[in-house]
Amino acid sequence: MKSRAAVAFQPNAPLEIVDVDLEGPKAGEVLVQIKATGVCHTDAYTLSGADPEGLFPAILGHEGGGVVVEVGAGVTSLKPGDHVIPLYIPECGQCNFCESGKTNLCQSIRVTQGQGLMPDGTSRFSYQGKPLHHYMGTSTFSEYTVLPEISLAKVNKQAPLEKVCLLGCGITTGIGAVLNTAKVEPGSTVAIFGLGGIGLSAIQGAVMAKAGRIIAVDINPEKFEMAQQLGATDCVNPKDHSVPIQEVLIEMTDGGVDYSFECVGNVGLMRAALESCHKGWGTSVIIGVAGAGEEIATRPFQLVTGRTWKGTAFGGVKGRSELPGIVDDFMAGKIQIDPMISYQLSLDEINKAFELMHAGKSIRSVISF
Ligand code: NAD
Ligand code: AHE
Ligand code: ZN
Ligand code: ZN
């Protein structure tokens, strides 16, 4: 079949909206009509050419919501008409990662997913007779996409897909980083570095965890109003200070924060977030994704003296078993999505979503098909 899609033909160039060819689902696969998709900074990161796994040409997008159109042989858990959120971290339930009970990082199809291919080693997408790469196993910048059954979470049909698509990455990641990865306790002092979709969602998570003080850090002061609306108690712009931001936070908190979250993808800021933590117990969580060749550094003494440095993907959430409950939490009013949606755009306008993100003018743009 044909599908209208935004194709990344090469790094650092605008996406091109074309009609691509899409093969139907093979065994264990599902054809989904994407109704809406968010644009996450990770899509921009890969498009920039900084992603060591970035492949071109590809159909990017990993923050979608859609409806099942057709299932391949052997698919038992989904049927046409089901509402689904694509998962860039699948949940097979059978690999040693899934069975460990220690991680959400199912590895059952990670190798082929990283190669931009379906689990059988081939692509379902092509354009003018040449294959296009899938992206993160999801490729939600296409009206129709094919995914493995294990890469789909079945969600409440009442949930508006043009909103809950954002639970496919950004909002779930920020909230999950606080609740699952850091396990912030009531009364804690928390610092959030970077107030995009991820950092603002981490603020929501910190409010849910009943943190006592939530310090929001960004170099764009236009982000502070929304941070305060969501529950930040303090806002700090590193550009307003002559000393490094970690010194500012240590001074503000009488020794450092209990938890910090890096939501930018800047390795220097990752160091600052770690070094903002309290001696003896502070924990810093890396959420931001850094470019190829970049590395983190700090004095080992920072860890010897009791700080913990960790990271998280998709907020530690297991997509198939836990995301449906998170959608229900949104339906019950426990999670805010509306303030995160800055713009609603059509697929033809998708490059504008990237421009708005780079200009710091949007939290999330949602593309509706
Ligand atoms: P975004 O572009 O919407 O927001 C980034 C924010 O960081 C902006 O508000 C910007 O002003 C701020 N910023 C930039 N440089 C800064 C600095 N030096 N100090 C303080 N603030 C600074 O991005 P997003 O969609 O929220 O994504 C944030 C990061 O999280 C990206 O690196 C993305 O790839 C990553 N991410 C990771 C996961 C995961 O599972 N680990 C999931 C989603 C996104
Ligand atoms: N391809 C990059 C890594 C990118 C990355 O870390 N992705 C996160 C999700 S970001 C969503 O916006 C992730 O899930 N990581 C776990 C994994 O298995 O990819 C690189 O550096 O190679
Ligand atoms: Zn993302
Ligand atoms: Zn698994």
Automatic annotation (TrEMBL):
Highest taxon of the lineage: Bacteria
CDD domains, A to Z: alcohol_DH_class_III
An example Gene Ontology biological process: formaldehyde catabolic process
Domain Enoyl reductase (ER): 10-367
SUPFAM superfamilies linked: GroES-like, NAD(P)-binding Rossmann-fold domains
Catalytic activity line of the entry: a primary alcohol + NAD(+) = an aldehyde + NADH + H(+); S-(hydroxymethyl)glutathione + NAD(+) = S-formylglutathione + NADH + H(+); S-(hydroxymethyl)glutathione + NADP(+) = S-formylglutathione + NADPH + H(+); a secondary alcohol + NAD(+) = a ketone + NADH + H(+)
One Gene Ontology cellular component annotation held by this UniProt entry: cytosol
Pfam family, one: ADH_zinc_N
InterPro entries noted in UniProt: ADH-like_C, ADH-like_N, ADH_3, ADH_Zn_CS, ER, GroES-like_sf, NAD(P)-bd_dom_sf
Any one Gene Ontology molecular-function term assigned to this protein's record: zinc ion binding
The keyword Repressor is assigned to this record: no
E.C. no: 1.1.1.284
Keywords: Metal-binding, NAD, Oxidoreductase, Zinc
Cofactors that this protein relies on: Zn(2+)
Function, as annotated: Has high formaldehyde dehydrogenase activity in the presence of glutathione and catalyzes the oxidation of normal alcohols in a reaction that is not GSH-dependent. In addition, hemithiolacetals other than those formed from GSH, including omega-thiol fatty acids, also are substrates. Also acts as a S-nitroso-glutathione reductase by catalyzing the NADH-dependent reduction of S-nitrosoglutathione.
Family: Belongs to the zinc-containing alcohol dehydrogenase family. Class-III subfamily.
Protein name: S-(hydroxymethyl)glutathione dehydrogenase
Organism: Pleionea litopenaei
Origin organism lineage: Bacteria, Pseudomonadati, Pseudomonadota, Gammaproteobacteria, Oceanospirillales
